[in-house]
Amino acid sequence: MGQKIHPTGFRLSVQRNWLSKWYANSNNFATMLNEDIKVREFLSHKLKNASVGRVLIERPSKNARITIFSSRPGVVIGKKGEDIEVLRTELQKIMGVSVHVNIEEIRKPELDAQLIADNIAQQLEKRIMFRRAMKRAMQNAMRLGAQGIKIMSSGRLNGIEIARTEWYREGRVPLHTLRADLDYGTSEAKTTYGIIGIKVWIFKGEILGKSSEVSVTTPNVSSIDNEKKKNIKKIPGSANKLANSRNKKVLGVEGTDSLNENKVSSSVVISEYINSGDKNASAS
Predict the structure, then answer these.
(1) Between the CA atoms of 243, 248, 251 and 257, what dihedral angle is there, to the nearest 10 degrees?
(2) pTM of the entire predicted model
C-alpha cells in the first residue's frame, strides 16, 4: 500500500503532524474545515510567487494563528510590513476571528518537495523540456544532501496526443518504511495542451526515537588478536616443537621421534654386542 497511499497521511501517527491543529465538536467541524480549505486556496493564489511550502493553521480559544513557511519571506512581508497587514485583514474576513500571521523561512528550498513540484510546474508552463526540469531538480536535491528523490510527470508531455507518465528516480526512496523521513509534494502545470501533474518524493533519512535508537559497535579484530598474543606465555623451544608437529601432520607421518629413538637405542645395543664378541674371540 505504500505505492498507493499518500506518504504524509501514512506517517501521521508515527512521525508526521497535522497541518491543521484545532478541536471542534460535530456542529462546527464542517464549517471550520471549510474555512481552512478556503484559507489555503487563498494563500496559494495570493502568494503564488512567494514560494510557499506549507501553511500551518492553529485555533487557540477564539482566535487563529497561521504560520506560513516560505523560502522568500521578503515577498510575503513586503515593504515595511505593508503586505502582511493587508494579508491579515483578508484572512480575518475569511475566518471571522482575529488572525495572527507568522512567517517562517525555508532554509533549503531544494529539499522541499512542494517547492520543487511548484518550480517544475512553472518551468513547464514556460515551455521548458520536462526531462531537463526534472533532472535538474534531482541533481540539486542530491547535491544538498538528499538520500533519494523521485519525480513523476503525467499528462500530454511535450504536446503529444496520447497522455503518458514518466518518472525518474535517484538514490533510495522507501515508501513502505514508516520511520523514513519522506517529504511529498504535488503541483499542476496549466499548459496550452492541458494540465500536467507533477509529484515529488524526497527521502531525507530515517528517524529513530530516543528509546528505539540502537548503537551497534563492531569489535576490532586486530585489537582482539593483539590482546590474545599478549596473553600467550612463551615457552622456550615451543615454537620449534609446534612447527615439527605441524610438518609431521602435513606429511602424514606420526611418531617419527619415537622411531628415531628406537633406532638409536638398537644401534647402541648392536655395537655393544659386537664389541663383546670381539673381546671373547681375542681371549680364546
Answers:
(1) 140
(2) 0.70
